[in-house]
Design a protein that fits this description.
With 173 residues, this protein is mainly α. It is built from six helices and two strands; from the N terminus they run αββααααα. Helix 3 packs antiparallel against helix 6 (148-172) and helix 4 packs antiparallel against helix 5.
Length: 173
């Protein structure tokens, strides 16, 4: 039997449960906190920073996809340059996607496999940006515009949105 001081120390250490059964006191092993819980707690700002950057990239890619889907590509016939707004949207989509990708390794170190959806979201965003770029670069001389690339960009954007949502949900837990 434990003395009163030993019992208080054992309770404080979590060695025994305060519950009482008909047979007497029940001894339980202390449960250790998850090994990475402190790391995850300390990485909270980095995870939030990545989640914010990922959402900004989603918004920028969505703006570019919607712009080119709605208005097509306006090209200066003399220079072959894409109109300013469309070009700026694509540059911003690429820039924010690269920023989110640059933040990803810190989150992967903290969350391990739980960051998989964040990684998949960034990959899908890269594909969406690439499809928009391919859409702008077509057609060749005398060819018609194909909507395949813009449709592929929409599909990649939808995939990125789903992965981003799962990432945020898992990161909260």
């Amino acid at each position: 039997m434990l003395g009163s001081i030993e019992a208080v120390i054992a309770i404080a250490k979590g060695a025994i449960d305060l519950g009482r059964t008909g047979a007497g006191w029940v001894r339980r092993k202390p449960t250790a906190p998850r090994a990475d819980s402190e790391d995850v707690r300390q990485a909270g700002p980095e995870i939030a920073d990545f989640a914010t950057g990922l959402r900004q990239a989603l918004m920028a890619v969505r703006a570019a996809v919607e712009h080119f889907d709605r208005y097509g590509v306006l090209v200066d016939p003399d220079t072959g340059a894409v109109e300013d707004l469309g070009g700026e949207l694509l540059v911003e989509a690429r820039r924010t996607t690269e920023e989110a990708e640059a933040r990803l390794p810190r989150v992967q170190l903290s969350l391990g496999t739980r960051a998989r959806d964040g990684s998949k979201a960034v990959e899908a965003l890269r594909h969406a940006v690439e499809h928009v770029r391919n859409y702008i670069q077509q057609p060749g001389e005398g060819e018609d515009w194909s909507l395949e690339e813009i449709e592929a960009a929409k599909a990649s954007l939808q995939e990125a949105t789903e992965h981003e949502s799962r990432f945020v949900s898992k990161a909260r837990n």
